[in-house]
Each structure stands twice: as C-alpha cells, then as structure tokens.
Amino acid sequence: xxxxxxxxxxxxxxxxxxxxxxxxxxxxxxxxxxxxxxxxxxxxxxxxxxxxxxxxxxxxxxxxxxxxxxxxxxxxxxxxxxxxxxxxxxxxxxxxxxxxxxxxxxxxxxxxxx
Length: 114
Hints:
0% strand; 4 helices
C-alpha cells in the first residue's frame, strides 16, 4: 500500500495557511482593539488643559508704568495755555539752571522705575 505524500502535505499545507490567516486576522483585530482602548484611556485620563499666560519681568514693568501713568493727574491746561501765549509773544524765558536740575531729577525718577 502506497501513500501519496504530496496529497498529505498539500492538505496540511492548506490547513496551515488557513490557520495562519486566521491567526493574522485575530492579531490585527486585537491590535486595533488595543489601539482603540489606549486612545480612549488616554482621552479619559488626560486632564483638561487650561490656558495660562506668563509675563516677563519687562512686560510686568511696562504694565506697572502704564498703571502709574493712568493714575497720574491730567495736564494743567491753564499753565500750558499761559506758556503757549508767552512763547508766541516772545516773552518766555528759559532758566538753564532750572532746566538742568529738572532734567537730572527726571533721569533720577526714571532710574527708580527701571
């Protein structure tokens, strides 16, 4: 009694191929489910992000200066008008010593701010 080995191997080969394909399909399904679960878990575990702002020291200084400027008194319009008339009439005299002192004081005030 002779056995046909080719038919036996061919039959088993087809069954093995079928099992491989099934295993690959199952593996792909498991991978897809795993990815979906990871995505869902990450979405659930991820806390809601909130916007935040961080100002540099320079920006904070500029903000403080703006606040100080907003809180200062307004311009004395009467004084401005009297000086404007004096200049137009040629009667306005500049005191160089007083001007230099005021400039020095202004620079000192700026150094305190910065």
